[in-house]
Amino acid sequence: MSKSTIVVIIYIIGLIFGALVLDMWSAETSPKALLGIGWTALFLIGLFFSEKNEKK
What we know:
- By secondary structure, the chain is mainly α.
- 75% of the residues lie in helices and 0% in strands.
- The protein has helices spanning 3-20, 32-55.
- It starts with a helix and ends with a helix.
């Protein structure tokens, strides 16, 4: 399994955890929304570095 696939799986698990446990997609706007933005930023950074290392 490639590193980018692992990064995507971890991201999806994190989104499911955030939706079900942290209730990030509730009607209220709160600082929890920043967790979703941060999680997506970490996903993009991880995907970038995993692709960069696979090309070497």
